[in-house]
Amino acid sequence: MPFLTQLADVARRTGSPVTEVAGWRTRGHGPQPEVQGVVCHHTAGPAGGGDYPSLAVVRDGRPGLSGPLSHFGLGRSGRIYVIAAGRCWHNAPSTSAWHDNSSSIGIEAENNGTQPWPEVQRESYVRLCAELCREFGLPASRVKAHREVNTAKPDPHSIDMNDFRASVAAILKGGPDASWTEEIVRSLPTIRLGDDNYDVKTVRACLFARGHVPAAAYGDSPDGLRGWLESTRADSGLIELVQAFQQARGIGADGVVGPETWPSLLRV
Ligand SMILES: [Zn+2]
Q1: pLDDT tens for each residue of 194-250
Q2: What SS3 state is found at 16?
Q3: For residue 187, what pLDDT is reported?
Q4: If you measure from the C-alpha of residue 69 to the centroid of ligand 1, how many angstroms do you get, rounded to a whole number?
Q5: Which parts of the chain fold into alpha helices (H)?
Q6: Cβ pair 83, 24 in contact under 8 A
Q7: Are 94 and 85 in contact (CB under 8 A)?
Q8: Which residues surround ligand 1, an ion (CB under 5 A)?
C-alpha cells in the first residue's frame, strides 16, 4: 500500500472542518503497509487553550520517539487535522495484529486524560472512524481504543468503546447515500477565482442570504444588487467575500468554494 493520500478526502466526508497539515502527503515512517484497523487515542497534551495544542508533538515526535505519531489529530472543536499519509508510531507493542503500526490508522484526539469530551469532538471522532471503515472496507469492530490493544495504555479515557462502535456501525449501516443534502453538496462543483458558470450565482445568492454582502460590494455594479446577483463570474470581489465568510465560519479562508464551504453556505 502506498502513502494514503486520500486521507484528507476521507476526513472531509465526515462533514467536520479539516486542516491539511503542510507536508502530510509525504510524511510517515515509510509508506503505510496496510490498513486493517483504527486505533483511537487521546493526546494527554496540556489542558490549556487552543484547539489542538498537541499538533507539533504528534507531527514531529517527542524525545525518544520520532514523529509522525499518528495520521490524524482531532481538535476539541471537532476539527480534523490530517498529519501523515505514511506509517506512524502510535501503537507498539500491539496485542492485535490488525492494530500495530504497520496495519492501522492512528487518531490522536486532544484531551489531557481527565477533562470531559466536548460533544462536537466526540461526534467528529465517531464520524471519522466510520468514514475510515468505509474507505478501507472494515467493520466497526476493527475500531479499537489504544487501551484495548495495548495493555499499558489508558486512552482514550472514559469513552465506552462498545457505545462508540455501535455509533460507528449505525453510520456505516446508513450508507454513503443516507443524506440527500450530502448528495447535493457532492454534486456541486468547486468554484474558484475566474470561474464562469451558473453555480457562481448560487454562491452569490447564499452569501447575500447569510448577510455577507455589504452594499459596497455591488455599489459599482451597473444594475446594483440585481446585476451583482446575476453575474456568473467569480471575480476577485466575490472571492474576497467568500474569504470573509470562511473566516467568520472558521473554515480555511482560501477563497475556494468546495466541499467544506458549500454546506456552510447552504446551511445543510
Ligand atoms: Zn495512545
Answers
A1: 999 989 999 999 999 988 999 888 988 778 899 999 999 999 999 999 999 999 888
A2: coil
A3: 76
A4: 9
A5: 7-12, 55-60, 119-136, 146-149, 161-174, 180-187, 198-209, 215-218, 224-230, 236-249, 261-266
A6: yes
A7: no
A8: 41, 146, 155
